[in-house]
What we know:
Layout: H1 3-8, H2 19-29, H3 35-46, H4 48-51, H5 56-62, H6 67-76, H7 82-98, H8 116-137, H9 140-151, E1 156-159, H10 163-177, E2 182-185, H11 188-195, E3 203-207, H12 214-225, E4 229-234, H13 240-243, E5 247-250, H14 264-283, H15 285-300
Parallel strand pairs: 1-2, 1-3, 3-4, 4-5
Helix pairs in contact: 2-7, 3-6, 5-6, 8-14, 9-14, 10-14, 11-12
Amino acid sequence: MPHQERRRATDRSAEDVSPAGTLAGIRAALPSLAPSERRVAQAVLADPAQASELSISALGRRADTSVATVMRFCRAIGMANYPQLRLALAAAAAREDARGGDRPAPGTDISATDTLDEIVRKIVYNEMHALEDTAAGLDTEVLGRAVDAVAGARRIDIFGVGASAFVGQDLHQKLHRIGRTAFVWTDRHAALTATALLGPGDVALAISHSGETEDTVEPLQVAAERGATTIALTNASRSALAVSADLVLATCARETPFRSGATASRIAQLALIDCLFVGVAQRSFDATTAALEKTYGAVQHRRRPQPQRRSSGD
């Protein structure tokens, strides 16, 4: 697929972006922004409601930058002008307010002084809204094309390292249970070796929250050169991984300082994996049901027998 066509598969105009997608899009763009533009993004994300009420010069002062930089930031995130950004931020802020009053206070990062109750509340909040935002921002047309590609593939190779490797292993196990020829590669050398056997009719799917992990980006790029259909699952829709892919499945997850633990991002990735898998499974419903029953039965005898209940007269 030509590079321009790949980007059309994932790029949408600002008019098509939902309120949830506005803030998610800004977060996704952060790594690719210039330092001065990143300060604008951080000022906007810190308080979208207040930012929506600021003039362009006031926002520039808040971000310690110029009006011209604010305009460049608008264009970088797909907004035609500053008034459009203000309207989008106001809608996003209203959506956040409508979610209810029981959420944690602004700034849901876990601190050193949080109680265990507060930690539970913040983790559940972050993961719940990662799922909501991912669903709201998901391009179902792109998801449908990914389902088509996987359902019709000769083989599916999945790449991921670190926490993303666990998500890849989950997809591999699901596909294997319904009889699909799938492999998961968590080592860069093994992944590159696998790509040598790929070609048209095959699918390569790479998973990376940042989209910049070289161990994942390189195998996907090589798979594309071999003619395989490439799919990226990432939180960064402008990342190297996304740019290298034919199709991009984008998560919208906000991580806490414990990012290395991959909390909300992992939940969002697993949700998209489930959507992809169920879409594929549905294409051959009867065969899938039979395969799941067979694979379930293969390990059923490994379950411990339930203890016999004593009757009330014993």
